Amino acid sequence: MRAEEDQVAWTFKRVAARAVLLDRSGFVYLIHGRDPGDASKGTWWEIPGGGIDPGETSLEAARREVVEESGIHDIEMGPCIWTQHVEYDFAGYHFDQDEYIHVAWADQASVVGAKHLEALEALAFMESRWWTLEDLLAAEIQTLPTRMREFLPDLMDGRIPETPLDITGPSLGD
User: Fold this and answer.
1) How far apart are CA 125 and CA 26, in angstroms?
2) Which helix (H) or strand (E) element contains residue 118?
3) Do the beta carbons of residue 12 and residue 91 sit within 8 Å?
4) Is the dihedral angle over the CA atoms 136, 142, 144, 147 positive or is it negative?
5) Rounded CA gap, 20 and 120, in Å?
6) Residue 64, CB half-sphere, CA atoms under 13 Å: how many?
7) Cα(164)–Cα(36) distance, rounded to whole angstroms?
């Protein structure tokens, strides 16, 4: 048993939706986050996303999460391009989730600001910004999904997979 498992009070098994938000000029939107309950994990940059609410499709949830976490409303949602299964500890909770990751586009790389964040999100989110592919590939940072940089170049070149690719990889901290 891992030491972190001794400290985790609850396990949430859930289905989540995320979105790789691109602008028309070749930028990708990422959120800089941290675990408010464990500073030893460091920080990471992630795509918007979260749990799917009852009655929502993954597309609807991904759109809602982009709006909540970026403040950008004028987005074009695309298909589910990637899937993954992840397990991670965050703020004293253990998450075991299947994720559906959609592509989305915004007309310009503007940041309006997060709206309607849950309490833990507000504590975890540090900043957000648009990244060029070159800067993201060159940066020595952790990203979520962990394999995003492996698959992002094709996506940013307009190559959208016909069926979602399973990008399950190592969890943050593995």
Assistant:
1) 24
2) none
3) no
4) positive
5) 22
6) 15
7) 32
Which residues neighbour 119 within 8 Å (Cβ) at sequence distance 6 or greater? none
* Tokens read off for 170: 């190592």
Beta bridge partners of 103: 20
Question: Strand pairing of 165-166 and 49-51?
Answer: unpaired
Rounded CA gap, 101 and 167, in Å?
A: 10
Instruction: Profile the chain (174 residues) by mean pLDDT over runs of 10 residues.
Output: 54 95 94 94 97 98 95 95 95 93 88 72 90 97 96 97 93 53
- Phi, psi (5° rounding) for residue 52? -85, 125
Query: Token pair of 109, please?
Result: 């790389």
CA dist., res. 60 & res. 63, Å (int): 5
Superfamily of domain 3-166: Nucleoside Triphosphate Pyrophosphohydrolase (3.90.79.10)
Name the helix (H) or strand (E) containing 17: strand 10-23
List % helix, strand, coil for the chain (3-state, nearest 5). 25, 40, 35
Scan for tokens 């703020």, then name that residue. 91
Question: What confidence score (pLDDT) does residue 6 get?
Answer: 52
